[in-house]
Amino acid sequence: MGTEHLLLGLVHDEAGPGGVALASFGLTLPDARAAVQAIVGVTEPAPVAHIPFTPRAKHVLETSLRESLLLSHAHVDSGHLLLGLLAERSGVAAEVLYRVGIDLEEARRRALDAIAAAPADAAPADAAPAPTPIAPRSVVTQANARAHRIAVQLDQAKTAKDAALDAGDFATATAMREWEKSLLAERAQLAAAPKPGGRTPPPLDPPQ
Known about the structure:
This protein is mostly helical. The chain has a single domain (3-198), classed as Clp, N-terminal domain (Double Clp-N motif, Orthogonal Bundle), CATH 1.10.1780.10. Helices cover 61% and strands 0% of the residues. The protein has nine helices and no strands. The chain has helices at residues 3-12, 17-23, 29-40, 55-70, 78-87, 92-99, 104-117, 142-167, 170-192. The relative contact order is 0.16.
């Protein structure tokens, strides 16, 4: 699943801040799909049990969480996802926006306006907390640090997914669900990796 699928989800969600900002440029779902198809030849991923995110799409999701933190928000919605997409200046989504004539800086301004104008109930009290940076600890191995990061992001992805479903924001819910699957796959890969000396480092305390 690439950045183009995230973009199509945002355009489809016309009521969310991300969709509102994109619609203000006159961008429609048929136009967006046509632009994607002109670039990659297809607009939808093949139906399989799990479609992993591309590294660029995963980076967009991580950036959307950082954007939420910078805005002092306690939730992640389609507006933050759009900010994450706009920050990724390369990739299919960026090429689509360029081809349809959307200026990225102006799109960011409109996204911020749409986020600010969103009703208060668009951010449920139990929405995903903004990411908390993990302080480096010299006594923790690299594997433990990675496991801790995955645990924190899994909690954020699950909470954001549940909050988005409660708010009817299905574009964000779908993106968070796929990110959750990607993190679970990464955790399984980490657990299966051989450890130095044949021993598994002690796990970190779970995030509170």
